[in-house]
Backbone:
């Protein structure tokens, strides 16, 4: 791997899906730039990627902050390498009844899942367009398609992210940039699901919850599609999930 290896940026490289995506692209020879609000929480992921022979850089970054996002992409392009893939994977799933949803909660969720996605997509597009190639992936959810009881803030933000992805795909596709919006429709194998929804987690043995590694495989497949057969939106769900 050299300093000129293509770079994949994962905004929101958590312990499950985001980390799995980062590891998947690292196995394909990409240099990974992974972010969370606290860079220290990325040490285990970086160590694992490096132990597997890959290369990764951790950044503490608030994706809602315009200056930080502008600086992040400028630093990566200047010091690490050309960004070929950008994945926006920040979760903002909260549940409150409408009368208990404060203005602060609604605004914060929109900032995390909507506005931060805009900043990520804009900065990725800026560096990809001069090269005429690249992939930008926004992680969607069930709430991207339909609002549920208690999810007014989350659904509003995920609807906004989906609209952003559609607009960017129509604008950037003719210029060589593949914009995709995978919808994760189901519980994911995470510590949160294990600890808070044990009945749902028990379905793991029946392939009833999503494996982050398998999600990551689909993200890699999206990136490697020929441009005469680009996917914009696909949904991933366990076989037993209703829809």
Residues:
């Amino acid at each position: 791997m050299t300093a000129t290896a293509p770079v994949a940026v994962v905004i929101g490289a958590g312990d499950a899906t985001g980390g799995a995506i980062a590891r998947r692209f690292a196995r394909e020879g990409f240099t990974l730039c992974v972010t969370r609000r606290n860079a220290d929480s990325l040490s285990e992921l970086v160590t694992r990627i490096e132990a597997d022979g890959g290369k990764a850089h951790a950044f503490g970054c608030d994706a809602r902050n315009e200056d930080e996002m502008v600086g992040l992409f400028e630093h990566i392009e200047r010091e690490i390498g050309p960004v070929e893939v950008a994945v926006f994977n920040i979760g903002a799933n909260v549940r409150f009844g409408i009368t208990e949803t404060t203005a602060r909660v609604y605004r914060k969720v929109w900032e995390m899942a909507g506005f931060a996605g805009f900043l990520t997509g804009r900065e990725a597009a800026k560096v990809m367009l001069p090269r005429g190639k690249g992939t930008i992936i926004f992680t969607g959810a069930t709430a991207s398609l339909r609002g549920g009881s208690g999810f007014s803030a989350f659904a509003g933000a995920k609807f906004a992210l989906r609209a952003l992805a559609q607009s960017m795909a129509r604008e950037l596709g003719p210029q060589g940039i593949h914009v995709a919006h995978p919808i994760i429709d189901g519980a994911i194998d995470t510590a949160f699901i294990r600890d808070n929804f044990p009945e749902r987690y028990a379905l793991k043995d029946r392939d009833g919850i999503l494996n982050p590694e398998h999600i990551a495989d689909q993200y890699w497949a999206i990136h490697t599609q020929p441009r005469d057969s680009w996917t914009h939106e696909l949904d991933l769900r366990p076989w037993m999930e209703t829809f």
